[in-house]
């Protein structure tokens, strides 16, 4: 009987630890630059994220906390739209100028500049 009680206590302790765990954080760093792309086989200048077009895929599940650090290496402000993504605790999902401010370009010589 004491073994069953100890096993029950251990299972309860594990379940409580799982239930009270904090939601995971996922960290990303994106460098936005210009580059040559070939959509539909036609060469043109486009915007790349970490040298990719289209940009990187984010794999996450409900309640993941995403921290995305965006470095704008373009020569003009850059605005990201998060359409279709539910963002709790803020109202920045629509990307409309005025509700979301564009990211200013990194100045040349700034240590954050990756160009």
From TrEMBL:
InterPro entries tied to this protein: Cu-oxidase-like_N, Cu-oxidase_fam, Cupredoxin
Nuclease in keyword set: no
GO molecular function, one term: oxidoreductase activity
Signal peptide: 1-21
Gene3D superfamilies on file: Cupredoxins - blue copper proteins
Pfam families linked to this entry: Cu-oxidase_3 (PF07732)
Domain Plastocyanin-like: 32-105
Recorded superkingdom: Eukaryota
Keyword terms, alphabetized: Signal
PANTHER family in the cross-refs: LACCASE, MULTI-COPPER OXIDASE
Record family assignment: Belongs to the multicopper oxidase family.
Designated name of the protein: Plastocyanin-like domain-containing protein
Organism whose genome encodes this protein: Ambrosia artemisiifolia (Common ragweed)
Upper classification of the organism: Eukaryota, Viridiplantae, Streptophyta, Embryophyta, Tracheophyta
